[in-house]
Every structure is written in structure tokens, then in C-alpha cells.
Amino acid sequence: MATHKKKVVYPIVFMVIVTSIFTLVLAVINELTYDTIQEQSRIKTQSKLLYALDIEYENNDENIVNTYSEYITEKSTENYTYYMAEKDEEIIGYAFEVVGKGLWGQIRSYVAFDDSFNQLKGVDFISHSETPGLGGRIDERWFVDQFQGIEVSESEDGEYLVFKPSIGGNIDSITGATSTSKAVRTIFNENIDQILQAKEEVINESKN
Amino acid sequence: MNQRTKGIFLLGLWKDNPVFRQILGICSALAVTNLMVNSFVMGLGLIFVTAFSELTVSLIRQFTPKHIRMMVQTLIISAYVIIVDIFLKAYFPSISEALGPYVGLIITNCIIMGRCESYAQNNPPFYSFMDGIASGAGYAIVLLIIAFVRELLGFGSLFGISILGEAWTSWTLMIMPPGAFFMLAIIIWISKNMIDEETEESGGAKAQ
Predict the structure, then answer these.
(1) Does B207 reside within a domain?
(2) How high is the pLDDT of residue B202?
(3) Coil, helix or strand for A120?
């Protein structure tokens, strides 16, 4: 009886002890690094917003945080949460988060407008899962930078972005990544359209 | 370094190399080898996890009830993997993002479990630790060789530094999954031929 009991109890006690030790160690490590990890992801988001809004910053953590708090305030209307950029008390732009379907998964990005919603200030991609080396190149600066200064006020059909060499084309698509390019265009065109419809709301809210 | 340690390293790095001799850890070897940086970090992660898991398993091997040893090993391995994951998230966020789910998946890497079960369970802590380093390094080296070819041909760069210049046409195939399969197969083929020759020369080949 005694040996039988030992065989059942000992492994359980052993497992409980080992598990407790490791859980404790991991909990401590997690606690110690929690703030750093939160900080890192916040800095990354902030740098992307700054980039989309075309505000210059140096690529170090401290500068990103400072520049961000100097220029950008987060606001929201009934339907939208947006980021307002101000310089010397004057509004210089608005940024919105847009999400849509890419080739393999969700593409999340920021799109930023100037103060009167006439032009794009720029965009930046937050996350995507496109094919590395093909669609994944939407991350690259040459692609992202093309969106700066595109007129968005006067399009009636909702085609704000058009790929070259079509008539009125303003963006180079990515060679070998047709689906991703199309997805990006659709996501931006649809979302820009919706945002522009709400622009009065946003402008009014920002004045308060 | 004594004779036994040398023996361990010879086995781990070459004769019993986990990737091309034991065909273990293939999944991650295929997945993260499109960039040298990713492979390097993944290799370091695996060396760390294998070495410390083996050390821990070996330290408590006399107290571990035989029939629950697998459970204990899994627990130990996952604890170390979580440590690596947290460490990368906190201090190398960009690499953590690039490796995505593969850091967490180190837990399922058969190399670690295999070494814990076949070596650490029956050997003293110091040699188990060395065996972990050797096996991990064996894995890391293969990853780096594959990544070297894939990044060089696929992006024209090494560790993100452009080597082949602008004129180079990237072999997109190399950075997509098939590129990894080709490279891995070539490495297994070459190493098999070399090791077979060695064994024959030294008269080690027994069965004809």
C-alpha cells in the first residue's frame, strides 16, 4: 500500500514543485520586462504615425517619443478615432488607421491627410503578411513615399489612387505582386472615400 | 577542452548533425532562413534553449520519476523558450517581429526534446550542457549556410548589407519556401556523400 501511494503522490508533488518554480521564474521575468515591451510597441506605432504624417524625426526611441508628444494628439468623433498633428498651434494634418484584406492576410496601415483634406500627407504600413520579396515590398520606402502629396479632393468616382501607366496614374505598383498592389489600392481608395465623407465632422471636432 | 567534450562537438556539429544527419528541426530551418539575421538569432535562441534545457533535465534527472519525464522536459523547454521570446520582444522588437511565431515554435523543435531524452537523461550536467551547445550550434550552422545562399541570391545582400549591387536580379524563388527545400536537399546530399566516404575510409562501414 505504501509503495503504491508513493508512486502516485510523488510524481504529482514533483510536478507541482517543478511547475511552481518555473512559473515563478517566468512571472518575475515577465513582470520585469512588461514595461519595456509595452514601450517598444508604442514607440513603433508612434514612429509609423510620424512617418505617415510626414513629420521629421530621428531614428532613436527618445526622439520619437518627444516628437510624437510635441506634434500629435489622439482624438475621436462618433465613428472615427484619428490623430491630429499640430505645429505652432496650427493643424497640419490628420491620420487614420485603415484595415483591409491583402493577398494572404490583413493589411493595417495609417493614412494621413493635410489640414483641408485636399492631399495625402503620406501613408505607412503597420502590419501585413504579404509574400516576402514580392508583396512584402509594400514596406519599402520607395513604395510608401509615392503616396505623399496625392490629390484626393477632386475624384468623383472614388479612384484616388491609380496605377501607372493608366491614364491619371499616380502610383507605381510592385512588379510581380499584382494581387497585393491591387489590394493596397482598393483598401486605400475605399477608406479614403469614407474618411472624406466624414471630413466635416473631423474638422469640427478638431477645432474644439 | 577534454576528449569527451571534443567528441560531443564532433557529433553535434558534423557526424550526428541534428539537421542533415538526424533530419530534425527541419520546419524552422526552412522557415526562417531567408535572411541571415533571422537565422543567426534563431540559431542563438536554439543554442540557449537546448543547452539550458539539457542542463536542467540533467540536474534533476535523479529525482524525476521515469514515467513523467516527458512532461517535465516539455515544461522545462517551454519555460526557456518563453524566456527567449520575452527577451527578443523587449530588446530586439524588429527581429522578434520578423521571426514571428517561429520563436514560440522552438518548443516543438525535435532537436531539444531529442537531446534531452537521449543525452541529458543519462549524462552529468556539464556534458549535457556542452551537448546542448554542440547540437544547437550544429543546427545554427546549417541555418546560416542555407540563409547565406538564399539571402545572397534572393536579395543580393548579406545581413542586410547589399553585396551584389543594384544590377543584380533577385532570384525571388530563393526567398520563397521552395528555395529552402532546394538548399536543404543539396546540403543533405553533399554531407551524406562526405560522411559516407569518411566512414568507408576509416573502415567503419560494416553492412554492404
Answers:
(1) no
(2) 65
(3) strand
Mean pLDDT over B106-131 rounds to 91
Which triple of cell numbers denotes residue A62? 527618445
Tell me, yes or no, whether B208 lies in a domain: no
Residues of chain B neighbouring A42 (CB-CB closer than 8 A): none
Which B residues 113-172 touch A at CB under 8 Å?
Answer: 154-155, 170, 172
Q: How far apart are CA A49 and CA B101, in angstroms?
A: 26
Domain total in chain B: 1
Q: With respect to residue B21, please indicate whether it lies within any of the assigned structural domains.
A: yes
- Beta carbons within 8 Å of A57's beta carbon, 6+ residues apart: A47, A50, A63, A64, A67, A68
**What is the value of ipTM here, to two decimals?**
0.76
Spans of all domains in chain A: 71-207
| Percentage helix, strand, coil for chain A under 3-state DSSP, each rounded to 5 | 50, 20, 30
Do A33 and B170 count as a contact with CB atoms less than 8 A apart? no
The minimum CA-CA distance between A40 and chain B, rounded to whole Å, is: 7
From the first residue on, what is the mean pLDDT of each consecutive set of 10 residues in chain A (208 residues)? Answer: 65 92 94 90 88 85 85 83 86 90 91 88 89 82 89 77 83 88 92 86 79
Integer Cα distance of A58 and A41 in angstroms: 17
Q: Express each pLDDT in A18-31 by its tens digit.
A: 999 999 999 999 99
Q: Please report, for residues B30, B141, B188, the alpha-carbon distance to residue B145 in angstroms, rounded to integers and kept in the order given.
A: 12, 6, 12
Contact B134, B12 (CB under 8 A): yes
- CB < 8 Å to B175, chain A: 132-133
B54 belongs to a structural domain: yes
Nearest CA to A206 among A80, A108, A118, A99? A80
Query: 10 Å Cβ neighbour count for A104?
Result: 15
Supply the range of the domain harboring residue B18.
3-201
* B74 C-beta neighbours (distance < 10 Å), count: 16
Instruction: Check: CB of residue A113 under 8 Å from CB of residue A195.
Output: yes
Size of chain B in residues? 208
